[in-house]
Prior knowledge:
Layout: E1 2-8, H1 13-17, E2 23-28, E3 33-39, H2 51-64, E4 71-75, E5 79-86, E6 91-95, H3 98-105, H4 109-113, E7 120-123, H5 124-132, E8 137-142, E9 145-149, E10 155-159, E11 164-168, H6 173-184
Antiparallel strand pairs: 1-2, 1-5, 2-3, 3-4, 5-6, 7-11, 8-9, 9-10, 10-11
Amino acid sequence: MILNVYVPKPESSAASLVLPGSAIVGAEEKDGRILCYYEGNAIGSKDLESFYERIRRAASRLATKYPTTAMAAFPADELECAATYDVEREYLPSVKDYRSLERWTREPALIVQGPDLPEGAHLTSAIGTRFEKAFPRLLKREGPVHTYALRCGQIVVINVASGMSEVIHPTDKLAESIRQEVRLGR
């Protein structure tokens, strides 16, 4: 499921209702309004400090229709679509308006979207520094093989014993297979 990531237009009811810097995701409604779920981290949770993590939370709620007070239907003309978010792959495949996104999030778009790594097989030492700056999130660990998801959607499989890594494109069949295994708890 691909969702739109919205930024409220200044002086709109959306801008006055939603906490500044909140992640706002939505799906268009038939009556010209957009049903939005949002996450602003009003309680100051450590795991929601980054805009990316707030997007993940809001998108998960929308995808599962989770009951929350952090949702509203706003007129479409009050919102600007700044990016898209792939719920299954947990990344932003496109940023449409970098300036608006950065103004609203107060974070550089490259941090929100996450830098990518060169795809293919590599010595782990060759991607080490770039890997750490790509916001890796551990998906699973099986002996010496550690599998990570990056903010940019790539999957990185690191074999600690051999010192080799494989960087996989977000839409590659192998990446899909790995995500499926993680979802099924294998």
